[in-house]
Each structure stands twice: as C-alpha cells, then as structure tokens.
Amino acid sequence: MPTNPSTRRAPTGPAPGPGDRAPGRLRHGAGFWTVAAVFVTAMAFSTVPTPLYPLYQVHDGFSTFTVTIVFAVYAVGVLVSLLLAGHVSDWLGRRTVLVAALLLELAAAALFLASSALPVLVAARLVTGLGVGMLTATATAHLHELHAADRPGASAQRFEIVSTAANIGGLGLGPLIAGALAAFLAAPLRLPYAVFGVLLLLGIGAVLLTPETVVRPAVRPRYRPQRVSADHGDRAGYVSAAAAGFASFAVFGLFTSLIPGFVDVTLHHPSRLLAGVVVCAVFGAAATAQVLSGRLTERARRTTGLLAQACGVTLLAVGVHTTSLPLVLLAGIGAGAGAGVLFKSAVASVAAMAAPERRGEALAGLFLVSYLGLALLPVGLGLATRFTGVPAALTWFAGVVLALLGVVVLLGRRRTRS
Fold this sequence. Notes:
By secondary structure, this protein is an all-alpha fold. The chain has a single domain, classed as Up-down Bundle (Growth Hormone, Chain: A), CATH 1.20.1250. Helices cover 74% and strands 0% of the residues. It is built from 15 helices and no strands. Helix 1 packs antiparallel against helix 6, helix 1 (28-46) crosses helix 7 (157-184) and helix 5 (94-114) runs antiparallel to helix 8.
C-alpha cells in the first residue's frame, strides 16, 4: 500500500559524520565489524542443533521424518518473522530490531536448556526462526549502511564479502562448535546452548553501542506485513536473484536437516564431531568461495556458482548411492561453494538495485523466498524417505535442484536481454 508524503519513510543511510554519533557509541567502522560478529554468532546459534538431532532421536525415539518437521518449524518461524517484521527496521531503526531479534534467540536458548523433550525442541526451533527472520535482512542492511558511512564512495566489495560470509559462515560454525562440545564435554544437549546464551547476551550489549543508520520519520508509517514484490528497480534481476536464493538455500537445508542422520545411520559414523565437520565443510566452502569470488564480475560469479552447485548435487547423488563418505563430503563442499557464490551474487544485486528507504524490504523479500527453499525441499525429501529409500529420495532432490538452477539460467538470460 503506497504511503502519502506525510507518512513516507525517511531515507536510510549513513550519518554525515562522526559528530552524529551518540556519546560512547562506536565509530561506523568499528560498528561494521561489531554487527558482523553479532551476525555470525546469531546465525551459528541457529544451527547448533544440527549435529545433535541423532541424540534427540535417541532421547525421544522419533523418526527421520520428524527431524524434517522440527526443521520445518524453524523455517516457518523464519518465514513468519520475515513477513511480519523483516522490513520494519526501515523505520524503527536497525539497532532496535537487532536487539529484539537477539532477545528472541536468547529465549530460544533458555528453552533448549529447560528440556530436551520433543515439544520443547519444537517450540525452541520456532522461536529461533522468529529471531533469525528479524535478524537476517536487518543485519545485512545495517552492514551495508555502516560500510557506506565508514568508506564513502568506496566499492561495496567489503560489504558483499562480510555480509554473506557472516551469514553463511555463521551457519557453518554452529554445527562445528556444537559437535565439538558434544563429543568432548558433558551434557551435550545443554552445554552448547549455555555457551551461546552467554555469547548472545554479549551481542546485545555490543549492538547497543553501534551507530544507528536509520533516521526515524516524524510520523511512523502505517504498518503492513512484508510485501514480496519484484518492483525494486530491476524486476527481471530481482526475480532471478530470488530464484538463485531459493536454489542455494535448498542445498543448505538438506545438509542441516537430513545429512547428519544419513552420516550416522546409513554411513555408520555416529561421531557428533564428524557430523558437525561435514555440515561446517559445506558452509565453510560457501563462505570461502564468497571471499575468493570477490573480484569476479557479476556474470562470472553467477556462472561459477551455478556450475559448482550443479556439479555438487550431482556428485551427492553418486555418493549416496555408493554410500561413500568422502564423496558425500566432496559433494557438500562443491554444492556449498556454488550455493555460497550464487547467494552472494543475489544479495549484492538486490542491495544495489533497491532504493535506500526500501532496502530492508527488498532484502527481506529475498530472504523470504530463500528460506522457502530451505524449508520446502528438505521437508519434501523427508516425506519421500517414508515411501522410498534415502538414496532414491536424494536422487530426486538432486534432480529438482538441477531443474531450479536451469530456471535461474533462463531468468538470467531474460534479464540480460531486457
């Protein structure tokens, strides 16, 4: 719904200079790295349960399909939060929404600590998703504006690398840390959440010290849920970016839901640390590829991401059929690297095309579509495992992802012609 001039959101962006900072606040450069560190922490917390799912299965005796349902609850929380609150930082302020998101993550940590029963696990994953949905678009927009304030007129390359690496790299650190704590220390279903609870508390204090980059309007605009609109300056480009995000997050969803159980049960490797290493390798490859692809042109970056992800999911189907852990690990690295580069390209494209006063909205829409990919395909895969074997289901998954990548290629060519 369009706004009239008296209620239109004030432009977002960097403050004119250091004098605009409140006493005791960090400078924009320090604020940039602070928000990046908090972003990493919050995203790592969201994947802490990944290597622990087999332990939860033993504790409550639920099936592989139930794991995908628990995972879907998390994704539903993200989607609901993106729809209702992913864009409100455009007028409420980045810091306000970031603190609210971190408080939700802290509440989820308290739930994990309270009980390991399935109903509490489901509730904790839902609250985690609500916090992540508020945080992703807001932190990304905040990083963009802090970077611009710290380095006026400079290339956006630092923002592109740090924002996507913080997001994807954080997702990979969570399983690695949780797997190591579960493997070597006591209370594997409690200790990881206690550690991250402390880190989240520190993150809240750190965010309160960062500069705000949004000027609040004198009259707050009428609230409306997030619009999923491609009208951000380049309709074909936005649709192409959203399709790339959907395909990329489908791969991430697979490795954070079903693959740890597959490694444990089918490949007979029950180590929690190994499960964390496999998932971390996927996201680590994604983050590394994002950094290394920084100097590539947008077209070269998209092509590299598409090819690497296509090769990775194809190799995954082979590794599953041959029950080969090295092939599954290599497939995860390839698919993760491709997905990371492809998603980085999508975020950079959307951040550049969106008007400053709608940047949070545009990024929230991108994350909304991406998290649909995170939820729908892995849940469909979990459902398929109830009727077919895991190898057959994963083969179908690979086929669907390859088809999605073909759609991204077609949309990219259409954008080029436009």
